[in-house]
């Protein structure tokens, strides 16, 4: 199954994989402020910003299994306004997180029929950052690519029988208790293939029914000939809208295909990463970790509003920092901690986050040009990554070492997004 691609890559570092799976499971399947179907839809919105079909398809199926309304899969126009209002910070966090302000937070939390609670918003922000960063890993390690033109083929069908992160990695140090819980949840919530077919067929029938009614109405108003022509066009457009969002019908092998066009899940598709403007005379633009850090500020806030997630995220950040990288560092002629910090700080620097106690001249000394190009591409516009980039950078390094770099990218990027979002929430609360 395609799902195994991520866990196979992370399996080179089993301790990290275990920590990742616990966080993933908690975010998506354990008690929390957000309904389960909304969690998966937020993940779809986040993954679509980077055109990550791998993750979109995964969460489309899990959204349906969680009882989500299939109509939502036609695009943002068909979801509740409350969820659609999340689109703005999804877009900003994915590409230019330094633009997040307390006004964005206030707009979502304002008293209205569609307002968010602080706890719900924190859960949503963590989900967005998690999926944006995971999209970087998916592209960075080549999980998205197929044999298509330019290394970017269409996503292969996903098997309904293999959708659990934990089940896909039973041999990779995932705790037995977590496996047991996730398997039970899969059995409890899984929609059978026939049910999925029936669900989508119902949408198709309802669509045809509405088209027929519209056709009859137009016949009466505009005359039979003209009305039939317009009605037929309307029906075609309506059906094309449906297929543009999702067409999860089973093929002859019993597998289900997913989203065919991700544009329906996002607005302002041209909004992307821009180099952070580093102007020494304008110190207000730079995010200084000394003023707001994960350890001193972000951790306590997120843990207070979304119980225990702070501990899981903190464990994951510490786990990636503790991974062995002696071989990588030795090849670069430095200590492991120095090498990893260079990569981490370089990623944060691209998002305008600075450490006063770090000499950024070290980045150019530690990281060769091709490595920096690769890191920037995977971090800032992962959808432009192709499998050849992964194969060509760092030819002297092992595959597991390249995966290690991608794990550093995943965690550094996620922490960067969280720092900006949590700081904005803190400023709103103050």
UniProtKB/TrEMBL annotation:
Signal peptide: none annotated. GO terms for biological process: cellular response to L-leucine; cellular response to leucine starvation; negative regulation of TORC1 signaling; positive regulation of macroautophagy; regulation of response to reactive oxygen species. SUPFAM superfamilies: AhpD-like (SSF69118). It catalyses: a hydroperoxide + L-cysteinyl-[protein] = S-hydroxy-L-cysteinyl-[protein] + an alcohol. This is SESN3 protein. Keywords: Cytoplasm, Oxidoreductase. It is found in: Cytoplasm. GO terms for molecular function: L-leucine binding; oxidoreductase activity, acting on peroxide as acceptor. InterPro entries: AhpD-like, Sestrin. Gene3D superfamilies: AhpD-like (1.20.1290.10). One of its GO terms (cellular component) is cytoplasm. Belongs to the sestrin family. Pfam families: PA26. Coiled coil: none annotated. The gene is Sesn3_1.
């Amino acid at each position: 199954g395609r799902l195994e691609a991520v866990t196979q890559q992370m399996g080179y570092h089993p301790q990290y994989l275990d920590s990742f799976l616990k966080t993933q499971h908690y975010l998506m399947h354990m008690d929390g402020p957000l309904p389960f179907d909304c969690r998966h839809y937020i993940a779809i919105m986040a993954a679509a910003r980077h055109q990550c079909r791998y993750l979109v398809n995964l969460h489309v199926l899990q959204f349906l299994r969680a009882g989500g309304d299939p109509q939502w899969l036609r695009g943002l126009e068909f979801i509740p306004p409350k969820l659609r209002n999340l689109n703005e910070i999804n877009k900003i966090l994915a590409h230019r997180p330094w633009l997040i302000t307390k006004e964005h937070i206030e707009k979502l939390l304002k008293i209205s029929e569609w307002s968010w609670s602080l706890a719900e918003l924190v859960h949503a922000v963590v989900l967005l950052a998690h999926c944006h960063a995971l999209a970087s890993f998916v592209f960075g390690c080549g999980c998205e690519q197929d044999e298509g033109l330019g290394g970017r083929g269409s996503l292969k069908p996903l098997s309904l029988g293999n959708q659990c992160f934990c089940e896909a990695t039973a041999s990779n140090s995932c705790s037995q208790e977590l496996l047991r819980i996730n398997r039970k949840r899969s059995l409890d919530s899984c929609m059978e293939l026939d049910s999925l077919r029936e669900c989508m067929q119902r949408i198709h029938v309802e669509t045809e029914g509405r088209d027929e009614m519209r056709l009859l109405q137009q016949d009466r108003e505009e005359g039979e000939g003209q009305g039939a022509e317009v009605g037929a066009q309307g029906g075609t457009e309506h059906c094309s809208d449906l297929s543009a969002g999702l067409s999860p019908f089973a093929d002859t092998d019993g597998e289900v295909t997913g989203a065919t066009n991700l544009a329906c899940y996002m607005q302002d598709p041209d909004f992307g990463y821009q180099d952070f403007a580093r102007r020494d005379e304008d110190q207000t633009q730079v995010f200084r970790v000394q003023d707001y850090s994960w350890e001193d500020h972000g951790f306590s806030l997120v843990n207070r509003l979304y119980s225990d997630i702070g501990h899981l995220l903190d464990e994951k950040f510490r786990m990636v920092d503790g991974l062995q990288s002696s071989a990588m560092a030795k090849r670069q002629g430095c200590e492991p901690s120095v090498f990893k910090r260079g990569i981490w700080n370089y990623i944060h620097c691209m998002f305008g986050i600075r450490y006063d106690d770090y000499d950024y001249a070290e980045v150019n000394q530690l990281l060769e040009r091709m490595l920096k190009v690769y890191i920037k591409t995977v971090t800032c516009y992962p959808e432009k990554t192709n499998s050849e980039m992964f194969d060509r950078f760092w030819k002297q390094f092992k595959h597991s070492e390249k995966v290690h770099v991608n794990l550093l990218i995943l965690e550094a990027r996620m922490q960067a997004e969280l720092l900006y979002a949590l700081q904005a929430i803190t400023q709103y609360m103050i």
